[in-house]
Amino acid sequence: MTKIFFGFMSLLLCILISPWNTQAADTIKVLILNDAYSRIPAKNEKTARLGSAHGDLLLSGIHYTGNIEVWRGDNGLYLVNELPLEEYIKDVVAVEVKPEWDMEALKAQAVVSRTYARYHRRMNGGSFYHIASSVLNQVYKGSKPDTRVSYAVENTNGEILTYNGKPIEAFYHSTCGGKTEDAEEVFGKSYPYLKPVESPCTLSPYSTWEREIPAKEIVQALNMSGIHDISIKSFTSTKRVKQLDITHRSGVSCINATDFRKALGWTRLPSTNFTVRKHQNTFIFEGKGYGHGVGLCQWCALEMAAEGKDYKEILSFFYPGTTLERYESY
Predict the structure, then answer these.
(1) How confident is the model at residue 220 (pLDDT cuts 50, 70, 90)?
(2) What single-letter DSSP state applies at residue 222?
(3) In terms of Cα–Cα distance, which of 83, 161, 159, 167 is closest to 120?
(4) How many CB atoms lie within 10 A of CB 207?
(5) How many CB atoms within 10 Å of residue 160?
């Protein structure tokens, strides 16, 4: 498939009359991750730009506008979509939340996504890409035009959250389950503007959930043989699971709950806010929330908007101590 795609890109490059000039544009470079291109470049991996094409391009069934660059690395090809930042924000908001949501919730998401993008562009300015298109950063699936989302983005045009004059690392997630998480518990770093807050998110389909996971699936995910018990060893400050003890054929192994969730799959185990029990050869997880739990809770934001809160009130609640301002040269 790589050879086929590269041939397609080569054809586009042959008919391209002139390169796209983005020097004066306020753009962002997004690393495209999908089933065919799933790798993140390794740190210090050597890369070389092979070429680019500009226009409305259809790749793996998804429309991308702007510029598509092809890079070769030690481990394969990488695709980077460079496009105007505000257009990127519209496309992100359209897939991160539902376009029919309350307008104030859409505006809050627009500001948070823009802040997150600005932060990563500032931190990765020397790289051939600024941000990835998957849940590793924030979800981007090409051009997703929507009238309501466009209105929300345009009516918050250029607004970002700052702390001490710099864009914040605006983490956000789907569903907190009633209380957000301390960033230090998840990312190992403390932020003054990312402290736990309590807020209901009962509208979310992940307000409560249950997963029945066969022991053999966990054995395969963890590469441990003979798993016959799982117990909670410790909790975070917000009572999410911090560590688990896995009893297996060779003894007992302690694993961080975030690593356990990653091994099983983010959707397979929606959050680390759960209890666990065993029934025959199956482990039953009962929990609340979806995502890492840090920063803005999207479903809480929706409930707050439905109660009459505007986007500025929503943002100040989840990111206390921050300032809402228009970016200048971040």
Answers:
(1) very high
(2) H
(3) 167
(4) 17
(5) 25
Rounded CA gap, 81 and 60, in Å?
Answer: 14
CA distance 313 to 330: 24
pLDDT tens column, 27-56: 999 999 988 788 899 888 999 999 998 888
* Helix (H), strand (E) at residue 5: helix 2-15
Nearest 10 degrees: Cα torsion 310, 311, 315, 316: -40
For 45-129, where are the E strands, in sequence order? 47-59, 62-73, 76-84
Q: How many CA atoms lie within 13 A of 195 on its CB side?
A: 7
Q: Looking at the predicted structure, is the pLDDT value of residue 80 above 90?
A: yes
- Distance, CA of 174 to CA of 178 (rounded, Å): 12
Residue environment code for 242-273, b if the CB has 16+ CB neighbours within 10 A, otherwise e? bbbebebeeeeeebbbbebbeebeeeebbbbb
Task: State the pLDDT at residue 43.
Answer: 85
Give residue 291's region: left, alpha or beta (phi > 0; psi -120 to 50). left
pLDDT average, residue stretch 172-190:
96
Rounded to an integer, what distance in angstroms lies between the CA atom of residue 117 and that of residue 59? 23
d(CA 102, CA 81): 30
Residue 78 C-beta-side C-alpha neighbours within 13 Å: 25
What's the predicted TM-score (pTM) here? 0.90
pLDDT tens for each residue of 274-316: 999 999 999 999 999 999 999 999 999 999 999 999 999 999 9
Residues of the chain above pLDDT 90, percent: 83
Residue 313 phi/psi, 5-degree rounding, is -65, -40
